[in-house]
Every structure is written in structure tokens, then in C-alpha cells.
Amino acid sequence: MQYTEIMVRYGELSTKGKNQRDFVNRLGGNIRKSLHAFPKLEVHPKRDRTHVTLNGEDSDAVIERLKQVFGIQNFSPSLKVDRTLDAIHQGVLEMMTEQLKPGMTFKINTRRSDHNFEMDTNELNEELGGFVLDNFPKAVVKMRKPDLILRVEVRNNGVFLSSETIQGAGGLPVGTAGKGMMMLSGGIDSPVASYLGMKRGVDMEMVHFFSPPYTSEQALAKAKELTSKLAAFGGSLQFIQVPFTKIQEEIKEKVPGGYLMTVQRRMMLRIAVALAKKRGGKAIFNGESLGQVASQTMESMEAINDVTNMPILRPVISLDKTEIIKQAEQIGTYDLSILPFEDCCTIFAPPAPKTRPDTERTRYYEKRIDVEGLMQEALDGIEISEIKPDQNFLNQNEDVFAELL
């Protein structure tokens, strides 16, 4: 059925005390950005809940998007009717005709924020319960754990009927835990790490290194499409593309093969830290899972982390590949991640990288390249864009992508 409003309830936000208003306002802003494709709806954040007035927008489509927004514990689509008994009867009849099946149990649960309404809570419960039994004689009233609860909320501006509670994504609103820089590849792991960081309220900025002509425009589009998928959980994301070709060419020319990956990762990390300092980031995030590949041993992490003292957070550090894939499938990034467009990490991967690189030796080899000059040139060439949910960056090659998927 076509609902008129969606009532959004909070989870952890209700425990935030004096800071609650900031969390609620942030959630309201995130909801607006996430629902940017529905221009007629209105979002009204309140202390105890947020009201999304649909104004004729497709309620089913809005519901699917709200399921993804972090900070929402659950929500209920509602039908607004006039404050008359006839209008309430008509709304109850419409809702119950669609949802109450023969033999199901039900309960009426009335709340009044307007105590001047002509009937009190108990009277309205009895009146509507009797009305339902008259129209659905096979239904059964049950006070404890009924199959269906019809909630009736009497407010100054109308009466709101709801009978369904839909689980939200939980977590904290994106942006309430500060800003982080995510080193986003085109693989499976980093989008999942992004999701997990965002769930704890981190405002992620996606830092993607690309190396044309060795990496293709399709690989860049793939990373942007992944970002668009992730943007649904918070409203929008900043995408920072960093030109990395010259750095990789110089490393390949001057650094021994076993240390190519280590020095390359150190340069990536330096650039991500520089961007964080410039843009207010408090930590670097990545998709490293301990022991999964050569650059993700503890020795490699030690040698790479050597370039900074900024916190480096790894949300998937203890997950195995099967667990990460399962999460990627659940959040809708897996099919994109496995598209065969190689990123700069795989293009320049050495045949036999060091799994236990020595930090001192890494520093020695790194002196062969112009670290500061190469970094500055890359930072001067960055491009930043805002990416919103539902943006399509792959549509220029629809036939190719359809075949690959």
C-alpha cells in the first residue's frame, strides 16, 4: 500500500545524553542525502524519532533505501488519516484488509500525544478492536505476542496508523565519529572495511590510487561505482583519485623486486596521511586482513607503518576471506569487486614479494627515489568528487559489464 509517512526510531542515539541532538541532526542530514532521489519528501528529525513525510513519493523505494542508513534502529511506514472516527475506521480497514489474514491474532496499541482528542487511549483501543472484529470475524484478539499489532498514534496534525516494524542498519550516523581516509582499491576487502568503519560513525573519504595507462578507465569507474554503493549507508562520500603512475614507474626502476610492494605501500600511506592532515582526517583505514597476502603480514605492516604515527585502522583484520566475501555479498559490493579490471596494486605486483621485509633495508631502498618530489606531484594532481547513492559510472559500457556480471 502507499503510505504517507515513515516513522524512524533510534538505537544507540538514545544513550547519547547531552550530545543526542548533534547525533539526531546528523542522522537527519544523512537521511536527506541518502533520499536525494525523492525530491518531494520531507525529513523532520525530533528528539525521540525522525518523521519522513512522503508527499506521494514511492514508499517501497524509500523503505529500501532507509534500510541502509546507519543510525536507524528500526522504522515503521505509517498511514496518516484525519482526526475523525470515520477517517480512522477507513484507514484501519484499508490496512487490515491488506495485512490481517484469517486466523491471525491482533492487538490495538494506541498512543495520544494530543490529550484533547475526543476518546482516551482505552476507549480508542476498544472501539477499534471491536471495529476490526466486526469486519474480520475470523481474527482473534491477543494481548501478548499477537501476530499483528496495529499502532494508532494521535497527534495534533492527524492520526497515524502503522502495523509493521522494519529493522534498520543500526550503528551510528556517519560523521559522528570524525573523519577517516579509506585506502580504497577495486577489490573485495576495502569496501567491506569501509562499511564497517562507517557503521561506527566514521565519515569516510575514499582515496583511490590509479595508474593510467596501466590501469583502465573501467577500473576507475569500478572504484567510483563501489563508492556509490557505500554512499547509501551515509548519504554521500568524497572520492579522491590520486595519480600514481610516475611513482610506480620510478619504484619499479630503482627498487629491488622483493621490496617493490613494500615501498609502494609506504608511498600510498604517506599520501593518504598528507590528505588526512589537509582535510581533517583522524585516522587511515584500509582493507588489510592479517596474513591474507604478502603485504599483510605483521612484518610487512611494521615496515609500511614506519612512515607515520597516525592511527591505521583495519576493520577486517581478523576476518578470513570467506567471511569478508559473505559481508561483501550482503552489502552489495561483491559483484562489482570481482569485475576483472585490475587496480594499480595488482598491475605492478612483483612475482615474489617479501613477506617479511626488513624495515631498515626498506628505508635504504627507498632513498633511491625522490620521495618528497613524487609525493608532491601526486598531491598536485588529485581530483576530488562527491559521489551519491545510485550514481552509475559503468553505464558507458553496459553490454560489456552485463556480460561480465
From TrEMBL:
It catalyses: [ThiS sulfur-carrier protein]-C-terminal Gly-Gly-AMP + S-sulfanyl-L-cysteinyl-[cysteine desulfurase] + AH2 = [ThiS sulfur-carrier protein]-C-terminal-Gly-aminoethanethioate + L-cysteinyl-[cysteine desulfurase] + A + AMP + 2 H(+); [ThiI sulfur-carrier protein]-S-sulfanyl-L-cysteine + a uridine in tRNA + 2 reduced [2Fe-2S]-[ferredoxin] + ATP + H(+) = [ThiI sulfur-carrier protein]-L-cysteine + a 4-thiouridine in tRNA + 2 oxidized [2Fe-2S]-[ferredoxin] + AMP + diphosphate. GO terms for molecular function: ATP binding; CCA tRNA nucleotidyltransferase activity; tRNA binding; tRNA-uracil-4 sulfurtransferase activity. The keyword RNA-binding applies. One of its GO terms (cellular component) is cytosol. ATP binds at residues 183-184, 208-209, 265, 287, 296. One of its GO terms (biological process) is thiazole biosynthetic process. This is Probable tRNA sulfurtransferase. It comes from Pediococcus parvulus. The gene is thiI.
